[in-house]
Design goal:
The chain is of the alpha/beta class. It is built from 13 helices and 13 strands. The radius of gyration is 22 Å and the shape is globular.
Length: 421
């Protein structure tokens, strides 16, 4: 057997000549336009969104208008991070102490800690083969104290929003969308983040578009927008009558970050198109071996709305998934398994020790003191989620993959799956 045909993990020649580029879609696109946008703000000396030497609105206000228009929403509020967006969004829809918010077992820990930050209790529900909230388990987790459901569009894929919205309406719950990993995605023709009462976005460096750190709160509801505006910035609260105002914090996005985000927003469509085309070719080139070997691709609630940042398939066991991922990595293909018990990953609820053990900053603090029923967690409380994630092999789909990269990825992935699946 030639070294090219032999698996690289067994001493063969890697199928790909070079490793995948870093998976920072917007971050890797940063260039002269972002630089010039920052310099424009610096030269103006207007570094604070509410005032400075030049008159008129600044970059943060411009970003809010542009982001809302792009996503198809009435209002946007620019904040300091995706976590700040979630906290602001929860306050905006009236979630507080004693309330319960249903979140998925697969999401960044910030989804849980944002709920805790407003004094509410995170209720952890299973994910299904979309790796997003399982509507059937959400229905089972509803209680008289459920105030909101938080669909998280993980790894760029839309949740089953029709089913989740129906559950929310029947039970009188609010919907807060965590769209941190799915900027620009859609569901049945509508942009993600516009299907619930409030949508929350992240502009952190790992996300599809970025300004290093930052976030956006999106809504169509005027009252939700007013509350978000007041909570994220006491200065903004001054525009409302004193008898209507509530005390807020400081989650204002800076003018420098907003300037970068405006340029990145103009890049978003191109990034999505590049990733979608590459994923289409990769998935098409793997379908035969996936079918023949009895594997399955991650389900998509709406394939047209996928941002295509990742290609995920399920192996028959966690052990086999790990072996496949290791072999793919040896071929210079960026791959991994989404859950390993021995590797702490804050995307998986089983590793959220501070949440599961209900740790608090002070002896009398924390949301569980206000809970209206006994709340208990355990690392094995969502077995279906752990099984799916343990069997899930994840491949990044970078917009920077060349045609040669894609061809070599297919060569290596087919070789690995033929041998190990």
């Amino acid at each position: 057997m030639s070294t090219k045909a032999r698996l690289a993990i067994e001493g063969g020649t890697p199928a790909k000549k070079r490793k995948d580029p870093p998976m920072f879609p917007g971050g890797m696109a940063v260039g002269p336009e972002e630089e010039e946008a920052v310099l424009e703000v610096v030269r103006s000396r207007c570094l604070f969104r509410h005032y400075g030497p030049p008159p008129g609105p600044g970059k943060a206000a411009e970003l809010e208008q542009a982001f809302a228009a792009f996503m198809g929403a009435r209002y946007a509020v620019a904040v300091t991070s995706g976590t700040a967006a979630l906290i602001t969004g929860l306050h905006a829809i009236g979630v507080g102490p004693g309330d319960e918010v249903i979140i998925p077992a697969y999401t960044w820990i910030a989804s849980a800690t944002a709920v805790m930050a407003v004094g509410a209790v995170p209720v952890i529900a299973e994910v299904d083969e979309t790796l997003t909230l399982d509507p059937a388990d959400v229905e089972r987790k509803i209680t008289p104290y459920t105030r909101a459901i938080m669909p998280v569009h993980m790894r760029g894929v839309p949740c089953r929003m029709a089913e989740l919205t129906d559950i929310a309406h029947r039970h009188g719950c609010r919907i807060i969308e965590d769209t941190a990993q799915a900027d620009g995605g859609s569901y049945r023709g509508r942009r993600l983040g516009t299907l619930g009462d409030v949508g929350c976005f992240s502009l952190q460096f790992n996300k599809i578009i970025t300004c290093g750190e930052g976030g956006i709160v999106l809504t169509d509801q005027e009252e939700v927008w007013k509350r978000a505006l007041m909570y994220h910035d006491p200065v903004s609260a001054l525009r409302f009558p004193p008898e209507e105002t509530l005390a807020g914090v400081n989650y204002r996005l800076s003018e420098l970050q907003a300037a970068v985000a405006l340029v990145q927003l103009r890049r978003l469509e191109g990034l999505l198109e590049a990733m979608c085309e590459r994923k289409r070719v990769l998935k098409g080139g793997l379908e035969a071996v996936v079918r023949r070997k009895g594997l399955s691709f991650r389900e998509l609630a709406d394939p047209e709305g996928d941002t295509a940042i990742a290609l995920v398939f399920f192996a028959s066991s966690a052990q086999k998934a790990q072996r496949i991922a290791e072999a793919l990595s040896a071929e210079n293909i960026g791959a991994g398994v989404l859950y390993r018990p021995d590797r702490i990953d804050y995307h998986v609820y089983a590793h959220w020790a501070p949440v599961l053990e209900q740790r608090t900053w002070t002896p009398s603090g924390g949301p569980w003191r206000w809970a209206r029923r006994d709340i208990r967690y355990s690392p094995d409380m969502c077995p279906r989620t752990l099984d799916l994630l343990g069997r899930a092999v994840h491949l990044d789909v970078s917009p920077l993959l060349s045609n040669e990269d894609v061809e070599e990825t297919l060569e290596g992935a087919n070789k690995v799956l033929e041998a190990l699946a």
